[in-house]
Amino acid sequence: MRLRPVPFSDGITKGVQIKFGGLNRGIGAADGELADMQNLTSDHYPVLATRSRRGWLNLVEYYGPGGNFNPDVTALYAHEKLCWVDGTGFYYDGIRKGDVLPGDKTFASLGVYIVILPDKKYYDTLDDEFGMLESVWCGERLSFSDGSLYGEEADANTLTAEGVEWSDYFKVGDAVSITGATLFPDNNKTAVIREIDGDKLRFSEWVFRLEDNEHEEAGELTVGRKVPDLLFMCENENRLWGCDGTTIYASVPGDIFNYAVFDGTDMDAWTWDVGSPGPFTACVSFLGFPMFFKEEVIYQVYGTLPSNFQVMTSATMGVAQGCERSLAISNETLYYLSRSGVVAYAGGIPQPIGMAFATERFGDAAAGSDGLKYYISMRKLGTNDWKLYVFDSLRNMWHIEDDTHATHFAFWHGNLYFLQKDGEIWCVMLRGAEAPEHMAIEPVVEWSAEFADIADKSPNRKGMAKLQVRIRLEPDAAVDIFLKFDSEDEWHRVHGAIAPKVKRSYYLPIVPRRVDHFRLRLVGTGGCEIYSFVRERYVGSELINTPGNIGG
Prior knowledge:
Layout: E1 2-7, E2 12-17, E3 34-38, E4 40-41, E5 48-50, E6 55-57, H1 59-63, E7 73-78, E8 82-86, E9 89-92, E10 95-99, E11 106-110, E12 113-117, E13 121-124, E14 129-132, E15 135-149, E16 152-160, E17 175-179, E18 190-192, E19 195-197, E20 200-202, E21 214-225, E22 232-236, E23 239-243, E24 247-250, E25 270-273, E26 282-286, E27 289-293, E28 298-302, E29 310-314, E30 328-330, E31 333-338, E32 341-345, E33 351-352, E34 362-369, E35 373-380, E36 386-392, E37 397-400, E38 406-412, E39 415-420, E40 425-428, E41 439-441, E42 446-451, E43 462-473, E44 478-485, E45 492-498, E46 504-515, E47 518-525, E48 528-539
Antiparallel strand pairs: 1-2, 2-48, 3-42, 4-5, 5-48, 6-40, 6-41, 7-8, 8-9, 9-10, 11-12, 12-13, 13-14, 15-16, 15-21, 16-20, 17-18, 17-21, 19-20, 22-23, 23-24, 24-25, 26-27, 27-28, 28-29, 30-31, 31-32, 32-33, 34-35, 35-36, 36-37, 38-39, 39-40, 42-47, 43-46, 43-48, 44-45, 44-47
């Protein structure tokens, strides 16, 4: 908001800026909007202010005696505790719980379980158990026979491996795949275990084909509980949902291990093959439904039971390839990076919200939310220029923090954490949130603000006379102010470092100069709040193009 210019008898007018906008790199940016910035925030809007200082998680101190003193963190997640992958170890609240392959991970949780992909491993936070989602028995002899079921005789339903304790491998209700049968190849199938009795697995009647009530198979035989090679995964309505290259899967309710139980009941797993070209790029649970994305298609699964699951397909802006971690929910709206830019989805058609970036395009994004703000770290396409951008969903403003290249975000105990590419875990300190244990606070914030072209709504040339700024700086903070006229390359310093101890106004004298437009830039260190700018100027004559100055 700008107050109406106030004229004086000498022809000098004052333009007052008391409301400061966010980022706008378009050529039509309004007064008070910024063409570029570093480490600014909308927390104190309409005042222009620097962001809060962040915290850094000291893992060496976190691990304690005997811990890993050369952290190499590659993945971050939050459950009841903060957890991450460091080298080949999975750590839960700083304690190593099991071994994984080094590198990036995809996490999901269901109840007390944390699932780790692509390793297909899990951690049970209640029983402190780390293990594999899959389980496979391999042997050279397997007997197919009649048996019993629920205390009654049953035909063609029993597998026996002499000396094997099947409960070490499986549990009742597991769907297991049997392979290696040669006498009757149709015995190579997937079936659901109904009972386990020592070395006997019992299934439903007539699940197998037998020779004389019993026969033995020899060779390379396997009985295994398999998990699909899921690329992405989320939890929705007590099921884990995921997708591989072509198929959507839903687990048995409350069961992270089974995706192939099809008994015709409400407790079944569920699958659905898609027909559109291209790979899946992400999945998420939103508004009570699982959603799956390709770059140009969104699939939303409606229903509560396998008998009424239905898939709604929308040919619209999906998640860009490699940006599966850009999905985050802020103020009840889902945000993500599409090939066309950042979009907001509240049901229906995704709406672009990246107009502030003008023609710039981005990729390789990861994002998180503190509930009201959307933080996204992304790279400008064609460059190695990484930035952490913040969208305020209440005020519809973008701000830039710094050149952070974050790979994972996690919201835990009132704080938003992010993992930098170099393996350091940082915390975005929220207002009112205390610093977590083993957290060091960064000492100072360097910041800058470059305003878009200021023309004061006049097409004529203006003579700039004075600049007044009302400002408050934290102790030991300072700011320099620069001007640039008519899109020239050089910045002119108009004042040395300002360091007021209290909120107050400063007059900054400048050399009068007639210009069409100018830009204002502030560069500082430490916390700062800018309340207003007052510009004194006089309006000159109209600009007239002549053959001698057209184009120049």
